[in-house]
Design a protein that fits this description.
12 helices, nine-stranded parallel β-sheet, 15 strands, about 30% helix, single chain
Length: about 375
């Protein structure tokens, strides 16, 4: 059924044995201070059969981190704690890249000692933030000054260097879902009138500069990016997405990045739902490297999009939560409905709903009580 998904592919320098990727999934299992824990080793190792694991979004600095128990990569302690995770994945025959995350205006002042979050402009994320003290209304962000840009790019550079020390196979820049890079890209959140604002070629500048720094550390073929070019995401949108993301695609083509992953629209009522046209084919017409799509795929729709050439690989998110052996389930045509998972445990500390889901072999080996 799914032969197209089981053809090996080079994602830049990374040779993936199949085209079923594990999408980045925030799970909130790090210890205070953003230090990876032992159960994270088990979690990622269980899912090492993915063609490539893209790690959960990982903070590049205290300034950019605002999710309870999310991991970081800015300190020596965090870097050392990631090493057993990458080793566990490699021992199981897998590959893993680290997604680099700055949340921008989505960081609540609670996480910043009362200071304002930073963004492209003085705008506010709609809704409320999750904090250990409960939900709190987001604050209006402080625009980053021009003299702060080198420091911000250095933060990404340090995170990229630490990711290499930790044994990852590459890095992915989180440029999607309404976080900092996305806040600079799209004109509902970027109201600047300097060289980082205004026309699309200016709004993609920060993305370019960060990618160039990461490429200087890793080489272009081990650097990728995630974008979400379709519709509103956490209050971030653009009045002319086709022109904007064509400009972004030209940068990525020029830099020859390893691959591009796109968060696509989902059905109405799901995260990323939108009624605007998908931009993936526009990007594909400009960027000629591997294109990975992600959003609510079934095995059949994934096979269809890879077979037709719409995508080169598919990144599955929620199905990997409750199906550590998702690749095998797709191979044999077994059920992998993501609703087997327990949403209440997605971000809840501990092993429940994290590393206790059975494989297909373990399920079939069970006997009735």
């Amino acid at each position: 059924m799914s032969d197209a998904l089981f053809t090996p592919i080079h994602l830049g320098a990374i040779k993936a044995p199949n085209r079923i990727l594990m999408a980045p999934l925030t799970r909130g299992r790090a210890s205070p201070g953003g230090v990876p824990t032992a159960i994270m080793q088990t979690y990622y190792q269980q899912r090492a059969s993915a063609g490539l694991i893209i790690s959960e979004a990982t903070g590049i600095s205290p300034e950019g981190s605002g999710w309870p128990s999310a991991p970081g990569i800015w300190s020596d302690e965090q870097t050392e704690a990631w090493k057993p995770v990458t080793e566990a994945v490699h021992e199981a025959g897998g590959r893993i890249v680290l997604q680099l995350w700055h949340m921008g205006r989505v960081v609540h002042p609670y996480y910043l000692g009362g200071e304002l979050p930073v963004s492209a402009s003085a705008t506010r994320t709609p809704g409320e933030a999750h904090t250990p003290e409960g939900k709190k209304e987001f604050a209006i962000a402080r625009p980053l000054r021009l003299d702060e840009m080198p420091r911000l790019i250095d933060d990404y550079g340090l995170a990229g260097e630490n990711a290499k020390r930790a044994g990852f196979d590459g890095v992915q820049l989180h440029g999607a879902n309404g976080y900092l890079i996305d806040q600079f890209l799209r004109n509902s959140s970027n109201l600047r009138n300097d060289e980082y604002g205004g026309i699309p070629e200016n709004r993609v500048r920060l993305m370019r500069e960060v990618m160039e720094r990461l490429i200087s550390i890793w080489g272009a073929d081990r650097v990728s990016i995630r974008l979400s070019p379709n519709g509103d995401s956490q209050g971030v949108d653009d009045s002319d997405p086709a022109t904007l993301f064509a400009a972004a695609a030209r940068v990525l083509q020029e830099l020859e990045v390893g691959f591009v992953e796109l968060r696509q629209p989902g059905p109405v009522g799901t995260f990323g739902a939108t009624d605007v046209p998908a931009q993936d084919q526009l990007i594909r017409n400009i960027y000629t490297g591997p294109l990975v799509l992600n959003s609510d795929y079934t095995a059949a729709s994934a096979k269809a999009d890879v077979s037709s050439g719409r995508a080169d690989a598919i990144a599955f998110g929620r199905p990997f939560i409750s199906n550590p052996d998702l690749v095998e389930r797709i191979r044999v045509g077994a059920d992998f409905a993501p609703n087997k998972g327990v949403p209440q445990t997605w971000y809840f500390p501990g092993e429940a709903g994290y590393i206790d889901y059975p494989t297909l072999a373990e399920e079939s080996g069970k006997t009735p009580a």
